[in-house]
Write a structure and sequence with these properties.
377 residues; alpha+beta; three-stranded antiparallel sheet; 41% helix
Amino acid sequence: ALKSVFQQRSHASSSLMSGGLFSFGSGASSTISTDNSLKLSALYNGVTIISNDIALLPKAIFHKEGDQKIKLTDHPITTAISKFASANMSSFWFHKVVVIAAILRGNGVAIINRNKQTGEIDTTNPFTFVHPNHLIDIRMVDGQLWFFTKYGTYHNSEVIHIKGFSLNGYAGDSVLKYAATNLNAALTAEAFADKNFESKGFGLGIIKTDKQLKDTAKKALTEGMAERLSKGNQYNVGVLDEGMDFQPIQVSAKEAELIDWKKISIEDIARWLNIGPHKLKHLDKLNYSSIEQQSIDHVSDSIYPWVKQFENEYDIKLINTKDQSTDYTKFNINALLRADIKSRAQYYNQMRFAGILSGDEIRELEDMNPTGLEHMK
């Protein structure tokens, strides 16, 4: 029935996926497949780090009563987002694959499964992750956002939707759409380096002589030396007579600069993913005195924007309207900074005695209840 309605109202609907879900451009140089892009270790590592960081964060529903913040550990939504996201997927893997899909394919989508009688979230199977290959389209129909999937058609209120970069705010674009040229160049450079270094390994060279040789003699000499040097034994000894000399061909300094080019490609991928190069194991020019600040930047610049998307989606689509003024979702991003707890303690101490933060305000930043003490002056 919905399909018929959408066909009749085609004039009032518009696809929000520019170029289609899996189209990243028209020219060969501006397209790249997901599988090929992940052959770049920096991209693979970057996507893994971002998705892992979001997946491992503690997640819960909180209830606010005045200044009191109560963690609702038994709330069905807390169970769904922190433990069992589906019958076959833990919360960790659910959040991980949704983020991966959002980065590499533009849209991470999951269907919200509800109890048909109560309308509450199904605690035995809260979400059904929609694989990007099963997401057909995201379409606006008469001002309403709809998701067309292999499993059926769903209204915006029936799905959790995490977007990548977006020009319209409704559907995301894959990072591969814009980074294709850079990533293809990186893949081409790696393939060239592999073939170049392989072809210029041990045993490749030329035979020099002052004498003029006939073609038959050249062919016999070439084949004989090739057979000798390609035997693969530990010791290969070739004998040349009549003043002949074997001159190996080695990798030039110019060709060795490909290694430097690969470093540049890591920095490019870091920019595309909005992640620090040091997180991709690129340690050139790393100032260890600034590691603390870099960790904070990673959380605020790379992780928190994704976290805020999840919190907004859960608040609006999972919490009852009547409870939205008091209940809210919280991802504890401080978990990513606890390795530097000494620095945080020093920071809080300075802020408190400078009169900028009170004890209760510091406790609030740590998701702790207030002590009831008066603010320090």
